[in-house]
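Most newcomers find our protein records easier to grasp once they have seen one. Read left to right, the backbone structure tokens trace the chain's path through space. Nothing more is needed to start thinking about how sequence determines fold. An example says more than a description, so a record of this kind follows:
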Amino acid sequence: MTASLALTGADGFLGWHIRVLARALGLPSPVMIGRDELASPDKLAGLLNGVDRVLHVAGINRGATDEVRAGNVVLARQLSAGLRACQTPPKRVVFANSVQAGNGTPYGDGKAAAAVLLAETTRWFGSAFDDVLLPNLFGEHGRPNYNSVIATFCRVLADGGSPQVEGDRELELLHATDAAALLLGEPSPGASARRTVRQLADQLARFASVYRAGEIPELPDHFDVRLFNTYRSHCFPANSPIRLARHTDARGGLVEAVKVHGGGGQTFCSSTVPGVTRGEHFHLAKVERFVVVRGEAEICLRRVLHDEVLRFRVSGDEPVIVDMPTMWAHNITNVGAGELTTLFWANELFDPGNPDTYPEPVS
């Protein structure tokens, strides 16, 4: 897909995941529609005029009952006003709706009413309308106590606490990147999964217990990898780098760089001459670990679509673990006088046809 794209709610949780996936796939940067633009039909019409696809992601999930019920309808009404004012209406409008639509709750009723309004508007000017019913979403950098119970549990565990389960129930869950693929009309790598709140709390607690020791938990399927990456996003950068215990005797020293529960993955080493940089890319799902075993290096990371660069100076004299968070551009540079030797580990075998590696300069 190379068509132009407009996105409401671009600065929110799902909006960020959509923008990152679009960047990874080489799609055009979306026209970002904020609350100010939505409130001005003429300004909004100018931004929407002639675009191929509009993704309506902006919404209200939490707040007073009346605010939640009416808020999503107001946003849809504002978008409809802008759409009707376009000289060349968008070809397709995609609504990030919810499986809770019409379930009798303020949120569900508001989403259902918003869908009806947008369907009527697109029918009026002849554009296609996709009403995408999304389940509970989770993913990297979700807001605790707002976006999902998973974000809340991850934050509690990253801070050293224990998640509390009040009112256990089963949830249908989908990673935000998979939701983004659905909304963009791209193939989705993963399907939704069902877990109870208690199962999530227990699994995340196991992840935390294993990862605190610098070890990788068992990750048997796509959902587990996505859930672990979500947990890791709440650990970084506060818990990085992870110090490695050095075992020494008369023969020399030894460090255990990678211990994977359940096995799997791929390990490789590289040598890098002074002044050379490797990396300059990001991953959507791959778990990747760097350990410098000889020489001096600087590892730099930047969250995609953000500006701040984090830097870690590391040395083979005191090896440490630096795990690359998903959706963070990263590189490693030999800043020493001699050759740099680095051990890399990834949780999956490299697949040239699907490398999950997207070029992106750190700075």
About this structure: The chain has nine helices and 20 strands. The first helix runs from residue 13 to 24. The mean pLDDT is 95. Residues 38 and 78 are 6 Å apart (CA to CA).
